[in-house]
């Protein structure tokens, strides 16, 4: 169980590191562009000194220098502010303000029920940040297009030949009412071990209005743990 939790944390930190690497790359490009602009202005200044009149050049050179350095100073200050914002938004283990996440835990007041050949888990909100992700009935709904980290785990407490779960999405744009399978976790049970977890996680691209749900193939003898750290389902916004 601890291994699964560490794996989930590792996946989230990996996605955050990719995002930070992208932001650093953007800032480096901005800095290179700034250096190019300064170099271009200085070259124009030198060419003006060669081809212009000396009397006019002596009067305008200081003004050109001030203009160039004022723009450079303004750009550097803007660059510095952006770096500080990036550092403050991701420092100290805090989530950036534009992140949204929504983990769901099993609702102990309502037992899982099997409508047909699947088992539906009744979820309740554990924690929520931002307005990009919300819960509607027994599903998670995203309100913006983008990339999301989707994860889920189920702890089975009985012997079963095959144990697992499926995470699927319902599109808000397609006319068909058929879900798309995003993640699947299946593993064989053992006769010796009665407690066995099945964990899945992945990064997916979702559209505004898409709904996600976790389903378990119905196994009459299979018992599901009701503990919050054993059975859960959640989504984290990555951009």
TrEMBL record:
Primary site of residence: secreted
Disordered: annotated segments: 42-63
Name of this chain's protein: Tumor necrosis factor ligand superfamily member 13B-like
PROSITE patterns the UniProt entry points to: THD_2 (PS50049)
Location in the cell: Secreted
Family label: Belongs to the tumor necrosis factor family.
Occurrences of domain THD (ranges): 100-238
UniProt-listed Gene3D superfamilies: 2.60.120.40
Record lineage: Eukaryota, Metazoa, Chordata, Craniata, Vertebrata
């Amino acid at each position: 169980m601890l291994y699964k939790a560490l794996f989930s944390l590792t996946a989230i930190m990996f996605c955050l590191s990719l995002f930070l690497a992208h932001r650093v790359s953007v800032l480096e490009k901005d800095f290179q562009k700034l250096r190019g602009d300064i170099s271009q202005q200085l070259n124009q200044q030198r060419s003006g000194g060669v081809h212009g009149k000396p009397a006019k050049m002596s009067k305008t050179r200081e003004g050109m220098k001030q203009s160039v350095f004022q723009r450079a100073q303004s750009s550097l200050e803007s660059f510095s502010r952006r770096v500080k914002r990036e550092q403050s938004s991701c420092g100290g283990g805090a989530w950036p303000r534009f992140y949204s996440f929504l983990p769901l835990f099993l609702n102990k007041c309502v037992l899982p029920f099997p409508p047909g050949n699947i088992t539906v888990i009744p979820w309740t909100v554990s924690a929520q940040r931002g307005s990009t992700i919300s819960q509607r009935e027994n599903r998670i709904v995203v309100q913006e297009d983008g990339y999301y980290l989707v994860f889920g785990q189920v702890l089975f407490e009985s012997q079963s030949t095959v144990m697992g779960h499926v995470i699927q999405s319902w599109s808000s744009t397609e006319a068909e009412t058929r879900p798309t399978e995003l993640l699947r976790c299946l593993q064989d049970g053992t006769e010796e071990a009665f407690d066995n977890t099945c964990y899945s996680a992945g990064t997916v691209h979702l559209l505004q209005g898409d709904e996600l749900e976790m389903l378990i193939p119905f196994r009459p003898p299979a018992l599901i743990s009701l503990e919050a750290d054993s059975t859960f389902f959640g989504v984290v916004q990555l951009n």
